[in-house]
Amino acid sequence: MRQWETFQRLNHLKRWEASILNQDDEATWLSLRLQIEASIFHQPLYSDPDRRRCLRVPCSLGMRYDASGQVDARTIINLGEGGCFVMTQRPLSPGEPLVLEIFAPEFACRGIAARVAWIETDEQAPNRGMGLAFLGPTPEQRSALEALIDKLVRIRMGFMAPFFSCRSR
């Protein structure tokens, strides 16, 4: 729990007051992020630890998106402050803008602007779909995302009981 609390403190400074982090704090933040992700995903995630700027957490959350009038509902399988990965057999094109809403108990976040950052279409890949990058979430959306990620991490690390995932209706 102490590891998570230290990470949260540094993460808050990194997100809101980046100039405050010194080189040692930045190194501690990265080390803790990698340790937490390895713990909650049960494996190291990538060979390039600097690839991502945000912690991400595995989940199974319902979502709905609207891309140029095309509305669809899918499942988010990992979520971070900067974006998410959505499982789909028919991903949108990279760069395509969309607006999404995420469904979880005690959580409502609608109207999040995003764009398709990358897609995975390889039939041999364990998860086919699209990586979405959030585009300037409002302070309210950012706070809601941070609270949801905090809850998901606490569940994954065994600090609190899980909730059931919600699917879009």
In words, what does this structure look like?
With 169 residues, the chain is an alpha+beta fold. It has 2 domains: 2-41; 56-156, Thrombin, subunit H (Beta Barrel). It has helices at residues 2-16, 23-41, 139-156; strands at residues 56-67, 70-80, 83-87, 97-104, 107-120, 129-134. The protein has a 6-stranded antiparallel beta barrel. The N and C termini lie far apart (35 Å). Mean pLDDT is 82; it is low at 164-169.
What's a concise summary of this model?
Helices cover 31% and strands 33% of the residues. It is an alpha+beta fold.
Helix share, percent: 25-40%
SSE ordering: HHEEEEEEH
The CATH superfamily of the largest domain turns out to be predicted glycosyltransferase like domains
Q: Give me the number of helical elements.
A: 3
Number of domains: 2
Instruction: Identify the CATH architecture of the largest domain.
Output: Beta Barrel
Q: Categorize the overall geometry.
A: globular
Q: Report the span from N to C terminus.
A: 35 Å
Strand order of the largest sheet: 1-2-3-6-5-4
CATH topology of the largest domain: Thrombin, subunit H
Total E-strand runs: 6
